[in-house]
Amino acid sequence: MIRQLQQYMRCWMELIDEIGKITKEKIMGDNMKKNTILIADDADINREMLKTIFEEQYQIIEAADGEKTIEILEAKQNQIAVLFLDLIMPKKSGLDVLEHMQKKGYMEYIPVIMITGEATAESDEKAYEYGASDIIYKPFAPKVVMRRTKNIIELFEGRSYIKHQLEERTNELMESNRKIKKSNKFFIDTLSSVIELRGLESSEHSRRVKCFTKIIMNNLVRFYPEYNLSDEDVRLIVEASALHDIGKIAVPDNVLLKKENLTKEEEEEKRKHTIYGCKLLENLKQNDDGFYQYCYDVCRYHHEKYDGKGYPDGLRGDEIPIWAQVVSVVDCFDSLVSGRVYQVPYAVDEAVRVILAGECGVFSPKILDCLEVSKSELFQAAELELSYAGSVEN
Q1: Would residue 177 count as lying in a domain?
Q2: Domain stops at, among 169, 187, 215
Q3: In whole angstroms, how far apart are CA 180 and each of 74, 208, 332?
Q4: 300 falls within a domain
Q5: How confident is the model at residue 341 (pLDDT cuts 50, 70, 90)?
Q6: Directed axis angle between helix 348-356 and helix 322-338, to 10°?
Q7: Do 133 and 252 fall into the same domain?
Q8: 137 lies in the same domain as 210
Q9: What pLDDT does 35 receive?
Q10: Is 137 helix (H, G, I), strand (E, B) or coil?
Q11: What pTM value is reported for the model?
Q12: Dist. CA 355–CA 364, nearest whole Å
């Protein structure tokens, strides 16, 4: 998440720098693509006066009533640099035209300057509500009209340019984020496959852990909002949970696959998988982003206990990251219901009872609350959906 935020900020800074390099001449040059001014006024003299001001720089199209104005807008909307619109016209008024433009979305890219000699405070307010850029009152000074019009055109063109650039950068970020997610999934699937091929876990263990982690995390977010975890955080934590035992790759087979009771030295070596996993992740990381941190925390701390009697660091209470606590109880739950450690698998209700009774070590009261309220969902996943042979989509 940190990396995505940094990318977003960099794009903003680049955009600001780029905009700073654009001169008014370039904006006006780009504006030549929209080289038409539409003058809508039922008075011939008013249309002629405005035409005289702008005809050397723009093509001029005239309309003497509201219906004709709308007809021209429909045909030439992408060519119109600005619309001069009289308030009082036959067939349809200026406000009727504005209402039509607002409904069609034209106000987003066609600036409208009201030209009127019969305005009221109410009509002015209504025009601005529809999105009119300016109101000029008759009689008007040609130089003032020219200056205000150019300012408005430049403003709209500049805004349109910024919007276009933002859309492009947003699309680039979305594509980049999509590739990152795809890369993370490939990374997780590859490492999980390595563990499975060594015979260290059942082929479905990582899928079940992800499924159960998602259930518990959703209830943690629901009942304990103080952790401020977003949907994206939950997604990353679920993905990271599949790597909790990645360090077992580095544990010798004669220790990891031993059927008899381990010696003290062998037990210490097995426990080092939490450290080995972090070293492996450290070598593979590219950026200090949120996903790496979740992977690291889950890998290192998923055997810590709330009373400080876990390993490798003997953390206590909330010193243990909450997502690592979730994966810890999930790993324990999966061991019970799958028979991964115990020869006879437990029923979901019994597995939950065993954990709540403290028979698998001490867990946070909050985590135990989430486990208990998740019981029906865990049953649905463990006994009806996964059946220890299915797959989980996150």
Answers
A1: no
A2: 169
A3: 43, 23, 30
A4: yes
A5: low
A6: 130
A7: no
A8: no
A9: 84
A10: strand
A11: 0.54
A12: 11
Q: Tell me, what's the pLDDT at 183?
A: 57
- Are residue 33 and residue 154 in the same domain, yes or no? yes
- For helices 205-223 and 142-197, what crossing angle results, to 10°? 130
Distances (CA, A) of 39 to 83, 148, 176: 6, 16, 45
343/333 Cα distance (integer angstroms) = 14
Contact 148, 134 (CB under 8 A): yes
**Does 176 reside within a domain?**
no
What is the three-class DSSP state of 61?
strand
CATH number of the domain bearing residue 61: 3.40.50.2300
Q: Looking at the structure, do residues 207 and 286 belong to the same domain, yes or no?
A: yes
What pairing do the DSSP bridges indicate for beta strands 59-63 and 112-116?
Answer: unpaired
**Domain of 98, in residue numbers:** 2-169
Edge-first strand order for the sheet with 112-116 is 59-63, 36-40, 80-86, 112-116, 134-137
- For residue 245 the two structure tokens come to 């035992």
Q: What is the C-alpha to C-alpha distance for residues 73 and 78, in angstroms, rounded to an integer?
A: 9
Give the H or E element holding residue 159: helix 142-197
Judged against a pLDDT cut of 80, whether residue 6 lies above it is answered with no
Average pLDDT over residues 12-27: 45
Q: Which residues contact 254 (CB under 8 A, 6 or more apart)?
A: none
Average pLDDT of the residues in 18-33: 44
Ramachandran angles phi, psi of 238, nearest 5°: -60, -45
330 and 203 in one domain?
yes
Q: What is the CATH number of the domain that holds 306?
A: 1.10.3210.10
Total domains, the chain: 2
Q: How confident is the model at residue 289 (pLDDT cuts 50, 70, 90)?
A: low
Interval 181-205 mean pLDDT: 58
Same-domain status, 230 and 364: yes
- Residue 120 neighbours by CB under 8 Å, 6+ apart: none
Find the length of the chain. Answer: 394
- pLDDT at position 129 is 86
How many alpha carbons fall within 13 Å on the CB side of residue 192? 22
**End-of-domain residue from the set 151, 169, 187:** 169
